[in-house]
Amino acid sequence: MKRKVKPGMTRRDQTVTRAYSATPRKRGSLTEQIKGLILAEGLRPGDLMPTEADICARLEVSRSSVREAMRMLAALDIVEVRHGHGTYVGQLSLSPLVEGLVFRGVVDQDDSLAALLEVVEVREALDLAMATQVTTSLDGTHDPELERLVAVMAEKGARGVPFAEEDLAFHTRLLGYLDNALVGQLVAAFWEVNTVVYPLLGLAPAAEIADTARAHGAMLAAAVAGDAEKYRQAVIEHYLPLRRALEKASTSGR
């Protein structure tokens, strides 16, 4: 049967849909068939899905099978079931990734510190990888909100007070200048894993919190100066206190 293509789909959308649907492996499970249906209909996050009865008829499967598949897709934020209203395409967030990594970070106490260090290394790698793009995008700019966040972090850091909220806001706004939404989402996801897992392991806060605050200021200064090399050095300094805290916990048995 020829697959219907929703009017208004771009040629790229149609190509992706045909390729996705034609892959034998993708046709193997009902969840993949439903994802193929979303593509075929040209649906986007927030759009209303076909009814359960319609899906059953089109895919020739039972209602119980569709309901089970929808539960699995809902857990991945691919669909959102709103009881009494219908099923919608989900926001396709990275929440499932965060939940999985948080659980991975605490489930095995013997390797939990190593797992957390891996998360920190990924965060640092992402920041370093985007140095050129960040400094190019912010070169010569003036952002009062970023400056305010740096000032608040410096003030809190001097008092030894954590500044998690400002930290995330700083990185989110900084990467918001890039034409790459996925990088910002990944950075926020790994930041959240780091922030959630760290206290769950009973670790003491990093002792050099003021250095971390100053590093944020150095990152911003290098970014607006268009200096990628200084930006990378500031990124490394940003993560040093956290790395030292994890290394200390590892050698002291926490």
Question: What is this structure's SSE topology?
Answer:
Blueprint: H1 11-22, H2 30-40, H3 52-59, H4 63-75, E1 79-82, E2 86-89, H5 95-107, H6 112-129, H7 131-138, H8 144-158, H9 164-175, H10 181-200, H11 209-225, H12 228-252
Antiparallel strand pairs: 1-2
Polypeptide structure, described:
The chain is built from 12 helices and 2 strands; from the N terminus they run H-H-H-H-E-E-H-H-H-H-H-H-H-H. The chain is elongated and about 60 Å long. A hairpin with a 3-residue loop joins strand 1 and strand 2. The protein has helices at 11-22, 30-40, 52-59, 63-75, 95-107, 112-129, 131-138, 144-158, 164-175, 181-200, 209-225, 228-252; strands at residues 79-82, 86-89. It has 2 domains: 11-89, Orthogonal Bundle (Arc Repressor Mutant, subunit A), CATH 1.10.10; 95-252, Four Helix Bundle (Hemerythrin (Met), subunit A) (Up-down Bundle). It has a two-stranded antiparallel sheet. It has 254 residues and is mainly α.
* Mass-distribution shape: elongated
Number of helices: 12
β-strand percent reads under 5%
- Distance, first to last CA: 62 Å
What integer value in Å does the Rg equal?
Answer: 23 Å
CATH topology title of the largest domain: Four Helix Bundle (Hemerythrin (Met), subunit A)
Gross CATH architecture of the largest domain: Up-down Bundle
Helical amount: 55-70%
The main β sheet shows up as:
2 strands, antiparallel
